[in-house]
Every structure is written in C-alpha cells, then in structure tokens.
Amino acid sequence: MNDRSRLVWEKQLGEILYPTNSGIPAQDKPVQHFEREFVQVVAERIAMNFYRHDPHGTFAMDALANR
C-alpha cells in the first residue's frame, strides 16, 4: 500500500499452512474449492493485522478444512 510513494504498511505474513496439521487428499476436494478456502484463510490472516479478533479463533481450523 502506498500513499504518494510513501510506504504505509510493511509486515511479513510468514508461512501460511492450510490445513496446519493435516493434509487433504486431492480426490476429497475439488481444486477450486480448496483454492477458495485457502484465499479465505489468507484474507483472514491479513485482516488480523487491522481488526480486533479472537486470538484463539483459528484453533482447530484443521477440522473445518477436512469437511
């Protein structure tokens, strides 16, 4: 993000694993569905830098990924 060529935000997100502790077999979920879920996870991770959030809100996210 720039404001008249002045950098206004710079923070590394680091590695984003989805799901964090397990894998999703390729035959269990269409690629488009996985991509949509992954983009949502990345968007939420970015939003955590700008909005109040529950720090434990992503606990057990692997259970949601494998449904």
The percent of residues in helical segments reads: 25-40%
Major β-sheet annotation: 2 strands, antiparallel
pLDDT averaged residue by residue: 79
How would you describe the shape? elongated
Output the strand order for the largest sheet.
1-2
SSE sequence, one letter per element: EEHH
- Point out poorly predicted stretches: none
Distance between the termini: 35 Å
> What is the radius of gyration?
15 Å
Count of separate DSSP helical elements: 2
Describe this structure in words.
- With 67 residues, the chain is mainly α.
- It has a domain at 29-54 and 62-67.
- The protein is 33% helix and 6% strand.
- It has helices at residues 31-47, 61-65; strands at residues 2-3, 6-7.
- The protein has a two-stranded antiparallel ribbon with strand order 1-2.
- The mean pLDDT is 79.
